[in-house]
Please model this.
Amino acid sequence: MAETWLFPDDLIHLKQESIRTYNALSATPLPDPERAELDERLFRLSIRIGDHPYWREHPHTPAARVGLHRAAVAAGCEPSVEKRVVDGRLITLPPGTGTAWQYPPAER
Model:
């Protein structure tokens, strides 16, 4: 049976901002100053999420972190971009396409 978590709104909002920042970092090549700013923002968001008071009373397990990610997406945030290594190259997939994505594509 899958576990269910009731995450506080502020924790969900932090995770949504983390997902948006990650997507901005992954979507296109960025100039170094902009990339550094987003890297620092993502790092600070990760710390705030990990140090959130919610985790003092609930286990901070991998399943709970996945649950938080899913709750953030269900609350209206687009999914994270997904990355895959194809022919030795790292490629970025648009948000939400990773589960249906195949290599090589089925049409071939």
